[in-house]
Amino acid sequence: METVLLVMYLTKRCFKMYYFNNELNKFDILKIPEEQHQSIKGLPVSEVGLLVAPGATGKSMFVLNLILASCGLTYNHLIEKPVKTLYVSLEDRLEDIQRRLYAYKKALNISETTLQETELDFKIIENKSTERLIEKGVNQKDNKFFQELNSIISDGKYELVIIDTLIKSYTGFEENNNADMAMVLSHFNNMAIDNQCSVLLLHHTNKGAIGQNADINQSISRGASSLVDNSRFVLSLSKNEYDTGIICQSIKTNFSAPTRCEYMRAYKGALICEESEHELVA
């Protein structure tokens, strides 16, 4: 009987140590917190964020602006310091992305000398196959696609990982099911924690968020509300009044003040920041 009780006690201890292996107590009040590292303004490492927009708004062009700003080639109001960035395209071919990059080269007059003088680089990879990063009923450790991406992030020590788009990243889960979408985001959250990076997921808005007069709030994301609930940072993109550019604004920020900035269209759709950043009253 004593042996059985000892085994039960040790089993209980093992489970406790496995699931809850960190804690705070009253003396932690006295400790000075470590500085929070954010890959982009409002999105810390080890966290997951969403960027939502209607189709044909300019998500891809905005993301390329963000990537170029991350290595100092242009200005983006979300970039406060250089960030090593990985862009994972599950929707567009590299040839199409390269054309958009060339549009930025023309719009910003980027030269080879400028590139040589820029220390930080970015990487863009694509996979348009029918395989998915997350598959219902399949352990992520057995998902070779997911594990390969994890290895790329780990080996490259990327601070910001952008997944384009969320809908192309999983299979077997119902977009309008809260439990399903919470599970999908938990896998990306594990990716962020394991690699000490931020993960930004590109997603579409619902039909009610399309149009000039659409109300921009936390309910604009398409699908289950748990997508926004389980994201610590949510950005929206919308066309400006005359469709000459886009407006980027934060609709959920757990770690910074809300922001809003307008980007004007330049050469072949390249987006250039036209306004200074505005701090909004929360």
Automatic annotation (TrEMBL):
SUPFAM superfamilies: P-loop containing nucleoside triphosphate hydrolases. It holds the Pfam family AAA_25. It comes from the Bacteria. This is Uncharacterized protein. It comes from Sulfurimonas xiamenensis.
